[in-house]
Design goal:
two-stranded antiparallel sheet; alpha+beta; single chain
């Protein structure tokens, strides 16, 4: 699972909004400004990642 680095203050908003994945309130924002819990964003990213080509 990818680990997102959300230590930057731009990932915080003082107003909670529903997470785009689980719909529970969160103050966190993605790189694109969408409300999302970090763990929800990491899970979503992992599930929607392009498969890595086999380099045999």
């Amino acid at each position: 699972m990818p680990s997102l680095d959300w230590r930057d203050c731009h990932h915080w908003d003082s107003k909670p909004a529903p997470c785009g994945v689980c719909h529970q309130p969160t103050n966190l924002r993605s790189d694109r400004g969408k409300s999302a819990h970090k763990v929800c964003a990491e899970t979503w990213t992992d599930q929607h990642a392009e498969p890595t080509p086999n380099q045999s």
